[in-house]
Amino acid sequence: MIRIGIYGYGNLGRGVECAVAQNPDMKVVGVFTRRPPEKVKTFGAPVFSADDAIKMKDDIDVMILCGGSATDLPVQTPMLANHFNVVDSFDTHARIPEHYDAVNEVATKSGKTAIISVGWDPGLFSLNRMYAGAVLVDGADYTFWGKGVSQGHSDAIRRVEGVADGKQYTVPVEEALKSVRSGSAPELTTRQKHERICYVVAKEGADKARIEKEIKSMPNYFADYDTTVNFITQEELDRDHSGIPHGGFVIRSGKTGKNLENSHIIEYSLKLDSNPEFTASVIVAYARAAVKLNSSGQIGCKTVLDVPPAYLSPLSPEELRKTLL
Amino acid sequence: MIRIGIYGYGNLGRGVECAVAQNPDMKVVGVFTRRPPEKVKTFGAPVFSADDAIKMKDDIDVMILCGGSATDLPVQTPMLANHFNVVDSFDTHARIPEHYDAVNEVATKSGKTAIISVGWDPGLFSLNRMYAGAVLVDGADYTFWGKGVSQGHSDAIRRVEGVADGKQYTVPVEEALKSVRSGSAPELTTRQKHERICYVVAKEGADKARIEKEIKSMPNYFADYDTTVNFITQEELDRDHSGIPHGGFVIRSGKTGKNLENSHIIEYSLKLDSNPEFTASVIVAYARAAVKLNSSGQIGCKTVLDVPPAYLSPLSPEELRKTLL
To answer: How does the average pLDDT of chain A come out, rounded?
Structure first.
């Protein structure tokens, strides 16, 4: 039985608790929170103060970190890797090398195994970029996200004056997908790849034309995209847009042959009803891998690119060869 | 520079020679053939007798076996794993455990690394079944093949009396793909998943009605499928059906959440102009991995499920983390 700790209990932490329940070889020993423990309601897992985590280190085989990448994980992952095998979902792509170094230093000294940046991007999408690129050497890679809710862009909408609530969907442009799948290896601008669709609840009496203009011209977030702003009521937002769906596509097209005369397309796609629950399911599989890596002496920091696929499964290598190959 | 040997030189061997040319960290040292070497025309690689392979063992880092699964590989892979790191594409799914055991015994003793059953199915498709199944524990797996040429079924057509030549395409049924992608986890019969489309050149004066009936009722090959037989001329067959395209889909749908209320779809697909060249490209990436595994002391028999993804790439772990995660 793999004993799991959950450090942080928001959408992702809840997803981890549910995912562990789907895996008969695991159980959640405790949820660790910085809030008053009595205020955190889980699906059944006992709740402890984050301050008590280290005291419980002998009861936990792997700690799953469910904090945010901006300020939580850069501090928490190295801190906890000193005492636990850990898995996190650090997803600030540009800062992964730096996070890796910080975690690797601690985990190498403590003899623990840390797997960072687990989820679907970074995570399963990274794996697919890796495999496809190694196989089709002469080719081009494309990653599309959506259709899905972007938390960051939804937050940006809600910061606009006069906005009561709002949600933003990132949507891949069908035309771009089609041209990538044709193998023509197009060069695509930001605008050609994704569009942004916003559902906005305006405060009473707010100037909708100004809100729309302000959203559409927001640098980094919306200005480089074709953005659609739909004004709806709070009731409509709650009824039709309360989910957290996401997904996307990793496509590589490449050429082979004496004169590179043959074309190939490798496509990987996800269509997810719940982004945090799916991310949690990926993390839980890698939690199993972290324990196996550690038992076989593979310590320090790892990413999905380092982990032998079979380590994710509860099945034995024999069973996997028999049923999956 | 990774020094590659190619053992057997048909479509796959030619594909391997081309694929190695696309990878600047590798070169082909020699092609080894059971035919008279002077009769084998390569794209430039020197040709030797298969009998001379073992004499050249110090010049070769990894031997890629390009023989068939029925009779060649069960003998050749263990034989050569006694002297070389090897990669093969053994694809008789049901006999993989037995092949693994035979190769593992030899490679463990010789201190070499063997990776068997490399390609796309078994191979990349197996990996996707592995990852998707580990992530979406409560779910169902579907593998569809095609649209593509099946060598075995084409051979079966050509054995029918009165047939001069022929080619068979395996085609996934669009309706079945759609229902799998909906997340409804349907149970599908053989007939519901794939149809078979045959292009047949009849000998002069042959009874086409009898040929069609004989093909459609052939047990194992065609009887369980909706099969279409199209009679065409040899010129048309040569003009329109000389390629070896293939591909397929691995789709897993699964549920997550407290009450399994959320649905997710993971889909992987390949669309290949040349089945042997793509298979060769996968094998060549795993040849690099075989050399890395061996240098780090990981000997014996492996499959794609055992190999850390990063081992396939010529890039360093640092570069991979920076560019792919």
So the answer is: 97
Alpha helices per DSSP H over chain B? 11-21, 73-81, 96-110, 124-135, 151-158, 174-181, 190-193, 208-216, 234-240, 275-295, 317-323
Contacts of B265 in chain A (CB under 8 A): 269-272
Predicted local confidence at residue A197, as pLDDT: 98
CA distance to partner chain B, nearest, from residue A249 (Å)? 9
| Residue with the two structure tokens 């904090």 | A67
Question: Which residue in B25, B95, B135 has the most chain A C-beta atoms within 10 A of its own C-beta, making it the best mutation to test that interface?
Answer: B135
Across the interface, whether the CB atoms of B281 and A310 are under 8 A apart is answered: no
Q: What is the pTM of this model?
A: 0.96
What does the pLDDT look like over A233-258, one tens digit per residue?
A: 999 999 999 999 999 999 999 999 99
Q: Which residues of chain B have pLDDT under 70?
A: none
- Listed as ranges, residues in chain A with pLDDT below 50 are none
ipTM at complex level: 0.96
Mutate to test the interface with A, among B253, B256, B292, B293 (most CBs of A within 10 A): B256
Angstroms from B107 CA to nearest CA on chain A: 17
Q: Which pLDDT belongs to residue B161?
A: 97
Q: What is d(CA B8, CA B53) in angstroms, rounded to the nearest whole number? A: 11
Minimal Cα distance from B253: which residue of A? A271
Pairing relationship of beta strands A163-172 and A148-149 according to DSSP bridges: antiparallel
Residue B189: CA count within 13 A, CB half-sphere: 6
